[in-house]
Write a structure and sequence with these properties.
The chain has ten helices and nine strands. The structure holds pantoate (PAF).
């Protein structure tokens, strides 16, 4: 597996692959990889001839009081996982390689005029999706992948990137991959590492609430407001859980809906101590 730290190295290698007629997949990550990331790499290996994984904690998507400094990293562990899953090149740039202006800032951002990035997570993380779109656009320009792979746990991120690709005419196919869960149901996240033992136990309320929500929908619930209220009450039964949001939105536009239909995204963000965790499901029928 090639370890590249500069944009020039990545460009040169990708160019060689493309000249040889090989397709290229990109899995953007912030490192501290787990089985959820591995599932994205596995999917990319199945669908593409060569797979690039970016491993970069992107400063522009963190707000001033967020966990940038504390964000966990283990590049050696990441490389071992990536190698074992058939990644061809890991791109691990420095902050100054990605943001040459210094201090992890840039004069040019990709921002969305529509209010999609201001819904859900955007209500408490106002600059987050500007940073995500900017770094993902840069990675698309550097790697020029045929396909890029993102997890459905970050459902709003996935919807925003699909919209950015459409609006800016990127020739990249976006592949969404299902949430991967621990044996007891907790959705995998690098931020699970912040949980203390009691918080780790309490966080099970998230996946239990997803199951409850799915059961209510399967039983015929069509009223989004009632479903959200039931899910909120369930989460509130856990004393260590602090709800950021539970919402039912259109899965493409992220706008609130009152009726549950096929494609409605039911998403939540809940804090347990220092960890803010996400989970969601999409209404299928
Ligand atoms: O989902 C993530 O880990 C990040 O938001 C991403 C897409 C790698 C951009 O930094």
């Amino acid at each position: 597996m090639i370890i590249a730290t500069t944009i020039a190295e990545v460009r040169q290698q990708v160019q060689q692959w493309k000249q040889a007629g090989l397709s290229v997949g990109l899995v953007p990550t912030m490192g501290y990889l787990h089985a959820g990331h591995a599932s994205l790499v596995d999917r990319a290996v199945t669908l593409c001839d060569r797979v690039v994984v970016s491993d970069f904690v992107n400063p522009t998507q963190f707000g001033p009081n967020e966990d940038l400094a504390a964000y966990p990293c283990d590049f050696e562990g990441d490389c071992a996982l990536l190698d074992a899953h058939g990644c061809d090149m890991v791109f691990h740039p420095s902050v100054s390689e990605m943001y040459p202006d210094g201090n992890g800032k840039t004069d040019t951002y990709v921002t969305m005029v529509d209010d999609m990035p201001r819904q859900l997570c955007g209500k408490t993380r106002p600059i987050h999706f500007r940073g995500v779109c900017t770094v993902v656009a840069k990675l698309f320009n550097i790697v020029t992948p045929d396909k890029a792979f993102f997890g459905e746990k970050d459902a709003q991120q996935l919807a925003i990137i699909r919209r950015m690709v459409r609006d800016l005419s990127y020739g990249v196919e976006i592949v969404g991959c299902p949430i991967v869960r621990e044996a007891d149901g907790l959705a995998m996240s690098s931020r699970n590492t912040y949980l203390t033992a009691p918080e780790r136990q309490a966080a099970l309320i998230l996946s239990q609430t997803v199951v409850l929500g799915k059961e209510r929908v399967a039983a015929g619930e069509k009223d989004a407001d009632r479903l959200v209220a039931q899910m909120k009450a369930n989460i509130a039964s856990e004393p260590l859980a602090e709800i950021d949001y539970v919402a039912a939105v259109d899965g493409v536009t992220m706008q609130s809906v009152h009726t549950l239909t096929k494609g409605t995204l039911v998403a939540m963000a809940v804090r347990f101590g220092k960890a803010r965790l996400l989970d969601n499901f999409t209404v299928e029928e």
